[in-house]
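Input record (one chain):
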Amino acid sequence: MRLEVATPMVVRPVVALLALALLLVPSGEADWDPYVSHPGNIPDFHNFTTPQLAPGDSGPFTLEISNRYAEPLEKVVVTMEIYMRADIEGSETIGAVADDARPRVEEGCWTRLPNGEHECAAAPSAQRATFSPGTLAAGEAVRFSTDIHSTEERSWLRCTLLSSRCETGTAEGTYFVRFTLEFDHNGTTRSMLSRGYWSMADWEAATTDVPGGAPGNINLTTLGVDGVIPDSSFGVKEPIPKWPLYVMIGLTVMFAGLAVVFYLEEEGAYPGLNKWLQQQRGKLNQLRLRLKHRERRP
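The corresponding structure, as predicted from the sequence alone:
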């Protein structure tokens, strides 16, 4: 009888300790919801306006986000961050680019559509802007905007004359922008990130080992998020000079005109034109003789 009584007395504390340990262990994986994480329901990032800048120019970077849930979103916070530069020679993280060669943002603004409620806040860092519109009603949209600033490289002579520091100038290339979206939905905090927050290995793992029913064929549990939102980009490049094009057009028009004139001369249909051409040739020959005569003088 003692053995029968002792067994449950020993097992119950062990079970309780195991349950407590499971509760105390933090989970590094997102508890995604099929409704919240469905690609057709997650907030819609659209109407992107991305600038193509020459070094030294500035331009607006804008996008709109719409709430496609049937319920309002609360404590909405959106962050955009410039995280990578690429050109034909390769790519590098923004941290590998010299400080004065990076494009920068100074503030982030949001405008509620269509009532026009507007607010701006200083950017927390030179490559990151944060937007906090608060509550987003069902079907409501908000426009987010920031200005991308670049720097023109100054020549050594100009810096010397102005007695100022020579800036490197913004490095040319394509700059990639990643986003975070955080909000409360029905009392639960949700977090969504764009592709730029994961390495290639992490992304391949999340898109290869996909369980059945995973939204968008992406393993959100592996990524630890409630959804994946899009990346974006903008460009910085010195424009191709237009004067060679204008020279080519001018030469084409000139040679086409000469071709027509010589054709008409050969046909002999315009005696006045032939006479004028002979006069011009005579003047040209006189000019050549004068130049030769000057060269022969001691």
